[in-house]
Design goal:
mainly alpha
């Protein structure tokens, strides 16, 4: 695993009322979600980055209105929905 360090001003922690541990977890989850959304990294890898199970990461994505379903067009979506 690779480690990445993020410097967060103490004032931000004070303003958000986050502990260092909460800020670290927030950062990991935000990075994982953006990797999933923008880079197409798998749910499994993103869950590892976020320090979550795959099931919990899928829920986390849903809470942030990020769908795990990707369709090229509306016709593909309708076809899949009819076959479900």
């Amino acid at each position: 695993m690779c480690q990445v360090s993020v410097d967060i001003p103490e004032a931000v922690l004070y303003d958000t009322r986050m502990s260092r541990e909460e800020a670290a977890l927030f950062s990991k989850r935000a990075v994982a979600m953006e990797y999933y959304k923008q880079q197409g990294v798998s749910i499994g890898y993103c869950a590892q980055i976020a320090d979550m199970t795959e099931e919990d990461f899928i829920r986390y994505l849903g809470q942030h209105h990020v769908s795990i379903f990707k369709f090229d067009d509306e016709a593909e979506f309708i076809s899949e929905a009819q076959n479900a």
